[in-house]
Amino acid sequence: MKTSAYVAAAITASLAAMAGSQAAAQTIPTTPITSITSRYVDAHEGLTIDALVALARERAPSLQAVRERIGIAEGERRQAALRPNPSAALERREQFVGLDTQTSVGLTWPLDLFRRGARVAVADHAVRGATFMADDEARVLGAMVRERAADVLSAVRQLEVVTRIAQASRERLDLLTSRVDAGAAPPLERDLADVEWRRSETEVLAWQGMADRALIALKALVGLSADAPLRLAAPLEAVAEALMPVPIADLTEAIAARPDVRVLDEDVARATAERARAASEGKVDLSLTGGFMRRAAGVAPTRERMNDVMFGVMVDLPWRNRQQGAIASAEASRRAAEAQAAAGRLDARAEIDAARVRDETAARVVARYRDGLLALADRNLAVVRESWQLGRGTLFDVIEEERRYLALQMDYTSALRETVDARTAVLRAWGAGQ
Fold this sequence. Notes:
Outer membrane efflux proteins (OEP); 4-stranded antiparallel beta sheet
């Protein structure tokens, strides 16, 4: 009887302390979760990931540097199309001991009949190669932006989870403080709750730091300064749910259309053109020559003056030097470029196949979490907390369940992040959205 009365009195005191602590907790200022995450995610003013990719392709210095290579190649193409300049010569001769003089003017005009076309072909392939290289850089940059945005959203989601746990820990500490003050709970339980709240608070700070660092890295990637305002439009779960399947095209065509593979193909074409250019340097070429000469001989009044006009053709004769070494070198370069292109196609095929498997696996993993697992974990945590408040469980049970819940949520965050990364890998492998 005494034991039952004691238990009833303890429960009554606990319920009274719980009511008092809930009233006290309402007066304690706390930071809402929405105000914490709004620093990173805003549905109205934030940017979508596609908008971030477009912004990066417009502002990123790394992409601008690659695009300047197109201008370099175009300048070289313009120079290759120009024909050689003519050369002029002026000569004056005077007799050492006499009055005879001779003045001549000569002009040589290279025709560049058999070399200009091959030279321009090499430059054309260089322009196309630089263009495809810029397209490939844009493709890789888009994937990097999506990955960095996923870093931010993953950290923000985990920050939300640990913030909820920290708020619950704070409420539990306030409750136990009221119970201890009322004599309904031992001080040890309050101290244990205090330690748990402090630990959860450090997790909040740690994840907030991770989100800040990820956001700074994202800003740098898209060409923004660290203090520039930037927020994303949707949380990680919404981004993962909104992922659309990538249209599956013909595999051979998809590989051939990838800009990195097209760069390798242009390397082969350029090496072939280089061989043709080297061969053209070993062919006959012509230059037109012309001149005017004025001669004066004798003394006055019988001094004679004669004017001569000359025309001719100068032939460049490839005798011993027919560019044999340059041709052999260009041929070896072509074979190396063909081997590199074949290897690039194999790598592209492997990347596409691996991305498909990764995407399918990530989708199945997330489906398992959404198939009642998360709801069950929420319900278990709520039941354990309620049981402890009613005196049917220990504080250790609550702490253990919260840590299990945290681990599950972290795993789910990783699964969502893997879903986004897997779809990004598919986009990068197929060269879509570049």
